[in-house]
Design a protein that fits this description.
With about 190 residues, this protein is an alpha+beta fold. It contains 7 helices and 7 strands, in the order E-E-E-E-E-H-H-H-H-E-H-H-H-E. The chain folds into 2 domains: about 5-35, no CATH class; about 45-185, no CATH class.
Length: about 190
Amino acid sequence: MSNTEPGWYYADGDPPGTMRYWDGAQWIGEPTTSQPTYAGGGREYGGAGARLGARILDAIIIGIPAVLIALAIIDDTDDLATGNSFGFALIGLLIGLAYEVGFTGTTGATPGKMILGLKVIGEDGNSPPSWNAAFMRWLPAVVGLVPGAGSFIALVLGIASGVMISSDDQNRSVQDRVGKTFVVKK
């Protein structure tokens, strides 16, 4: 099996009708009668509730410095108060870039994910995933800056991600598919 790709297979010596996860070098876990919803290395995928909770925590963590910085540098507080400031959106996006890509690329999880026991792995099963994967996961956030339709497009992507996480057997969101990653339980 040493040249066999990682995946679920029957292992010699296991009971008939069972399978076990092969990580490319060794068998992981116990034999099972059906393929569980696990990512590479036998890890369980993060569920919709935990992922939504992590996203909310991360939004709060990102939002506080974004508002403070915006208050310090944006002159027109009316635009800031009504949410019509491109500058405010850009500040939030740049803080989000540093936060999301920085934490995902170095630790495999944002603080929100860490608090809720989740981490991001690459398709190869490694955590943290590559810097490229961390950046690509963040990239869909840029649609929020599209003049006029950005907020609507971001809302549609958020709803699509929620539907995907809830209905996909690997709980993969738009960001996971773009970044070629999985969110798993620690």
